[in-house]
Specification:
Chain lengths: 139, 314
């Protein structure tokens, strides 16, 4: 099983992940008033990494059927939340209260990641389909 | 073919219209005695247009950049819709695109749309943005390139052929769980724009999202459309045209008639049919049928021609 996972064409290397984490840490240091740090929007097809899956501090929210799944997410401080769009329609992730900068438009299989480094409740919605809502609770 | 084919019931014709929606069609609007009449592009005969004051064409929801089932080539279907406009004997006074020019507001998508639009034969093209055209920059790129630049907010009005046209923006400053939104500033402008106009002036309102509560669970409506309607209800003829829902829905409220338009890219489900308003991709087979259906459309055009011939005989 794990050998097969390693063969995945788009798996991210641990080094790439560390680099991403480092970048976000640096960003956090310079933008102290932003509670959640926008890490990156990855182009489509890019990684569902087995490293991420193995790390409890990385959590994925799927966007499918015009809904965020799970809609309510509870995580610990420092968790990286990834949204991945599984719909054929474009979506995006926007904070309902301006707590973070909205994602770019997410086409099918595009991802958007945020590291939540402060406790709080972060309601968000899809800026294209405002009826789609979700919440991340950071403890 | 058997004679049964000549006696096809209405549902078949309706299905073909659905297929035409998938294949991409515009709507020709004819102004007759101050009242707008809709005419599908395919069936519009020059005879019908002869007694019109003027005509214009609405196209909508081209979603340039969309690359999924049921339409892997939205450029081609949009070009086909424009080709239908060009094939007409009468040149429309203008062509208006009621939003979602692009799928993701990307520069190259706007480039493609602009290049395709250059091919349409009409003296004037007008645009209003859909929510897909304002992603990431609140529409700055859209307004810079396609806006009329009458007002900072992007909305505009103009007169043509005795009618007054108002183009509203209802895709900005959307809120969580909200619908389309006009905002106080735009509503104040609308009130001022309409003030002093005779109630006999035919009014045509253009918007992207429906300007009446069509289906709130999917965001198909505009939060403050009621306030706009308050300014409009004193007029004897008000026609409200929008896109967004990729299908035709109609509603009459006093002197105000609301119409939604088809998309040139892909159809969406009827309100509430399924989890959300995504593309009807299980059209897989149906789209195949619609390609076969283009033959059916021609066949039906033949039937329409027969009915036109009957009119000519009478």
């Amino acid at each position: 099983m794990s050998a097969r996972a390693l063969d995945r064409p788009h798996a991210v290397t641990r080094r790439q992940l560390m680099r991403g984490a480092l970048a976000s840490a640096v960003l956090a240091a310079f933008v102290p008033r932003t509670h959640a740090q926008h890490v990156m929007t990855l182009p489509q097809g890019k990684p569902t990494s087995m490293v991420a899956a193995a790390d409890a501090r990385d959590v994925t929210v799927e966007i499918r059927g015009f809904a965020f799944v799970p809609q309510q997410l509870s995580v610990t401080v420092g968790t990286r939340v990834s949204w991945i769009n599984r719909d054929d329609e474009a979506h995006l992730v926007a904070s309902s209260e301006g707590a973070f900068k909205a994602s770019a438009a997410l086409d099918t299989d595009d991802r958007f990641e945020l590291v939540f480094d402060k406790p709080g409740t972060y309601p968000y919605f899809c800026g294209i389909h405002p009826q789609m809502r979700g919440t991340v609770v950071v403890k | 073919m058997s004679s049964d084919n000549n006696l096809e019931p209405a549902p078949s014709r309706r299905r073909i219209l659905e297929c035409m929606a998938a294949a991409g069609a515009g709507t020709l609007w004819l102004m007759k005695g101050g009242v707008l009449h809709a005419q599908p592009m395919a069936g519009a005969a020059a005879q019908t247009a002869a007694d019109a004051t003027f005509g214009f064409v609405q196209v909508s929801d081209s979603h340039i950049g969309f690359k999924h089932a049921p339409n892997m080539d939205v450029n081609a279907t949009f070009a086909a819709a424009l080709a239908r406009i060009n094939a007409r004997a009468l040149t429309p006074a203008f062509v208006v695109h009621t939003g979602d020019l692009t799928h993701l507001s990307r520069a190259e998508e706007f480039d493609t749309l602009a290049a395709l639009m250059k091919g349409v034969k009409t003296p004037r093209v007008l645009f209003i943005p859909g929510e897909h055209d304002v992603i990431g920059d609140n529409g700055a790129a859209f307004f810079d390139r396609f806006g009329e630049k009458q007002n900072a907010g992007g909305w505009y009005s103009f007169d043509y052929g005795g009618a007054h046209f108002v183009a509203l923006i209802n895709v900005l400053n959307l809120r969580a769980n909200g619908l389309g939104f006009l905002g106080a500033e735009q509503l104040a402008w609308l009130k001022k724009d309409l003030a002093g106009r005779s109630a006999e002036t035919p009014i045509v309102v253009l918007g992207h999202m429906p300007l009446w509560p069509l289906y709130a669970p999917w965001g198909w409506g505009t939060e403050d459309s009621g306030e706009a309607m308050t300014c409009l209800k004193r007029f004897g003829s008000v026609t409200v045209l929008n896109g967004h829902i990729h299908q035709i829905q109609q509603k009459v409220e006093g002197t105000v008639t609301f119409y939604t338009a088809r998309s040139t890219a892909y159809p969406q489900p009827a309100p509430g049919d399924g989890p959300g308003p995504g593309p009807l991709k299980d059209l897989g087979t149906r789209q195949l049928q619609s390609y076969l259906g283009i033959r059916d459309v021609r066949h039906v055009q033949g039937q329409d021609a027969v009915s036109v011939a009957e009119e000519m005989l009478s």
